[in-house]
Amino acid sequence: MKKPTIRDIAEKAGVSTACVSMILNEKDISRFSEETIQRVFEASREIGYVPKKYKLYKNPKKLILIICPSLMNPYYATLIQSMEQEARILGFSTVLYTTYWSREAEKEALDLAQSPLVAGVIFAMIPQQPEVAEEASLHIPMVAVGDKNVNIKIDTVDVNNYEAGRMIAKHLIGLGHKHIAYLSTTLNDEHSSRMNRCRGLQDEYLCSCPGGTVTVISQDVSSEQELHMIDVEHEVGYRLSKRCLEEAPQATAIVAINDMVAYGIREGLIEAGKRLPDDISLCGFDNIYPSRFHGIKLTTIEHAIVERGRSSIRLLSEKLNRRSESESAGAIRRLEYQSVLVAGESSGPGPHAALDFQ
User: Fold this and answer.
1) Which candidate among 55, 125, 253, 356 keeps its CA 20 to 30 Å from the CA of 97?
2) For the whole model, what pTM was predicted?
C-alpha cells in the first residue's frame, strides 16, 4: 500500500501542500480559518498520515483521548480503568485529560483532540458544553458515557438517572419515609445526572406519596476546589449533613448525589449522634466498591460502571472501523444499561412505618 503523503492530504482537503505542512506543524496556524484547519486534520486522520513529530509513538493512529472531570471519586477511577482494559484488548493506547469540571479545560481538551495524533475521543461524562462537543464530533469520532435523558448528538453509553431517582424514592416510600432530603454538590443543568436524579425523586414522591416532601440542599463546588481539595466530595457531604439537620429536621431519610458524598454525610450524622438506619436512613448512587465494605454497606444504585466503560471503547472502535471503511456514519447510537437497586444496611423502616402510610 502506498504510504500517505501531505500531497494526498492536500488533494483530499482541497488546499495546498504548503497549507497542510504549516497546519500539521502548527506554524502560523492563526492565518487559516477554523474550517480549513478542521479539513486538514480530518483528511490526515482518514488517510492515516502521521506527522514526523509523532513518529516516536508506537502507534499514534490508535490513540484514544479520554476526557474525565475527576479521578478522586472511585466511580471515575473504575470507569477509566475499565476503558483502558478494553482499549488494550482492542489494540488502542489511551491518554487522559482531567478537566475538574472546568469549561475552559474541556474546551482545551477538545482543541487537543483535533490533533492527527488522536484517533477518537471518549467523554467519561456528558460534556458541559454539548454544542461544542457536537461540533467537534463532526470531525473526530466521539462517544460519551452519559444519561438517557440528555439529548446530545453524540454516540452514548447511558444509564437512566431519572429512573434511578424514582427507584430510590420507591424504596424509601416502601419503608415508610414520608419526608426525605436530597443533598448534592453543584446542582445545575451542566450536571445533568444530578438534576435528573433529583427530578426522579421529586416526581415519584409527588405521584406515590403526595403528602410527602423532598427537601433539596446543595453546595456549589468550583473547578478550583475540585482541583485543590482532594476530599472535596466527602467534605461537602459532611457540611451538607449539618445543614440538613438544621434545615430539614423532619427528614427521616437522606439521599446523596453519589456514594462519595454519602460517606461524608454518614460521618456528619454519626458525629451528631444519629444511628443509621434506626434514627435516619441514608442512600447514594453508583455502587462504588467501598460501599460494600463492612460497616458501610450503603443502600445505593448499581450503575454498571465497568460494563459501561468497556462498552464505550467498543462503540468507539466500531465507529473508527466504519470510518476507515468509508461507510456512512448513520444514526446516533445509544446503548443503555439498566440501573439496579442495592439495598444495604444504611436504610431501614421510617419512624412510623407500622402506621397507615398515606
Assistant:
1) 55
2) 0.82
